[in-house]
């Protein structure tokens, strides 16, 4: 279990609650310096995975590496280099934003009282510093959670649905902040979400979880190649046509789906070339369409395939 | 560990309920002495307006602080499993044992504040408003307080431990009542028939702070003798150790 560039690496990580498998032998690798988007529907196991990494729940089987640490108490030591928001941020309701952060600042032994206000300003909560946690809106609570996550100048952020409850402006603001932290401070970010659009402009790597299983890990670059615009072709003899694509047009990155439909990424200058190829070789052309696949479509295809 | 303890002190002393509870306890004991004083003002023959009576009265209710220790313990843990504040500490890499143990000194400090303010107010107002009945009653009250203090601390630690074992505040309070009150009551009744139960009962904390027998013109408590004081202290400290161990076990096993 050692991918040198990985800051987190899980191996066969499994969590069972009674009869239910929340995580099913998950292998995951998060490259250092990346923004890793952990994508999955509600109940896919995202929160459980993060909770295991943070020591809040215990794995039933398998293990993980956090930097070099492969067991307690080394995990605990390295968790001090992390910042996290898991589920809804947890704070003492009767205490103000400043008091809550001050409590954790003292607990973590972070020097400098001014750090608390600095972090509140950073997440846009400077004006609400004296507001009690129970009086805060969901968006403000999320921001306070992020301020706590950033309090110890972390090298790794683990964020579970961090923009829940934020308004559109807040989402953009937090996204920009996370990108800035990643770019300027080289903070690795693991961010989970069931809303792909949240991650689309931010993540450098993706992991897709479905029903506790990791169904794919992919870089954003590769994902954008696979998504984006493509040609969809339906012919009477897909296998023969695929062979012709390779021989005549030197194409290799096409895909033949189980129903015989052929997908070719991108759109050529002259789209008739695909039609001509079929007609000249006596293959019946049933459909030739220009299509665009969004990340959501890709994920849906992926989960459908996994379900099958 | 020092940082953990410091943060708990910071939090506990930012909690208004702690001060409200201290104020309520002080108000309650002041009410007793003020009530006795008012009675003596309106009735010249009223014989109970003395420090002897009021301090002896309080000595007979050493089980009340045991119940209050459960309330204090509840305030100290602050329902943090529900509010998920403990999750943040675990996520930061603090050991669960440290998290639990750091709450005990803060709880002790808050309880000591409450006890000192209440007892000082009680004794002070007694001397200020009532007829001095003799120093021996004050000393007896103070001796009783010192002897029962470990049992009260055990009560405080117990509710905190039961909270991490059961995972909910209401379940911890109910289980505390069963363990600390109902079980000793049952064992005490069985003690009338079985010698073993009688011996066991004399070591249980609730019995320890409640037990008394008539002794001449006043009541004799467990702490009325030197050996009794020692037994009270031993039982209290054993309780503290036992419940601390249970608390550590509870927080270690709990999934957050």
Offer a quick outline of the entry.
Chain A has 308 residues and is an alpha/beta fold. Chain A has helices at 46-53, 74-79, 97-108, 114-122, 138-151, 168-184, 196-200, 220-226, 238-249, 272-280, 295-307, and strands at residues 6-17, 20-31, 35-40, 61-66, 82-85, 156-160, 188-193, 205-210, 213-219, 228-235, 255-256, 262-265, 285-293.
Tell me the β content of chain B. Answer: under 5%
Tell me, rounded to a whole number, the average pLDDT of chain A: 89
What would the principal axes of the Cα set say about the shape of chain A? elongated
> How much strand content do the residues of chain A show?
25-35%
Order of helices and strands of chain B: HHHHHHHHHHHEEH
Give the helix proportion of chain A (percent range). Answer: 25-40%
Low-pLDDT ranges of chain B: none
> Which structural class best describes the helix and strand composition of chain B?
mainly alpha
Low-confidence stretches of chain A: none
